[in-house]
Amino acid sequence: MGVAREALKETALSVRIVGTADVSPDASIGEGSSIWHLAQVREGAVIGRDCVVGRGAYIGTGVTMGDGCKVQNYALVYEPARLGTGVFIGPAVVLTNDHFPRAVNPDLTPKSAHDWEPVGVTLLDGASVGARAVCVAPVTIGRWATVAAGAVVTRDVPDYALVAGVPARRVRWVGEAGVPLEEAGADSWRCPITGKMYKEAGDTLSPATTE
């Protein structure tokens, strides 16, 4: 049956799951969340309230997502990824989970689950990852940081950093609104949208304290 004719399944908690999605009965889906056409949510996954999992996205076994996350179409979130509150994962993003990927062992026998240990990507509150970016585990994307479309992240990203390129490097600072910050004096930065001030110290940025 085509998706246009497929009714949403709504539970008493207003969880919306399109009938063509594949959601394990062992997954936990928070109130107000939506799982769309051809998405797969594996066993043990925990998805918070008011989240969106787009068409064809994959949420691996035991992945955890905080409230208000958006995982766009065809993104691959492999276990044991951890997403904080309000994380955005763009279309076709990949969060990897293997240090040294191989289909077989050195003796050419097929690898089993016992032959490797998954490592995860962690995204802290408010972080965003642009379309087709790849985050190579294990890395942590800091609070309100932004990974540009097409970037390949191979090392941790500081809070409020905008990183781009292959491999990804910091090119700007961004605030909670997501737009690049403007210089406002020595080691000071201002959000042009909210007016909020930030202070730079070495390779870090944090909200400016008020006296």
Strand order of the largest sheet: 1-2-5-8-11-14-17-20-22-23
**Radius of gyration of CA atoms, rounded to a whole number:** 19 Å
Give the CATH H-level superfamily. Answer: Hexapeptide repeat proteins
Could you name the CATH class?
Mainly Beta
Number of extended strands: 27
The poorly predicted ranges are 1-8
Overall mean pLDDT stands at 92
CATH overall fold name: UDP N-Acetylglucosamine Acyltransferase, domain 1
Beta content comes to 25-35%
Largest sheet: 10 strands, mixed
Percent helix among the residues?
A: under 10%
End-to-end separation = 62 Å
Overall domain count: 1
Spell the H/E element sequence. Answer: EEEEEEEEEEEEEEEEEEEEEEEEEEE
- Structural class by SSE content: mainly beta
User: How many distinct helices?
Assistant: 0
User: Quick one: overall form?
Assistant: globular
CATH architectural designation:
3 Solenoid
Primary descriptors:
211 residues; mainly beta; UDP N-Acetylglucosamine Acyltransferase, domain 1; ten-stranded mixed sheet; seven-stranded parallel sheet; 32% strand; globular; disordered N terminus
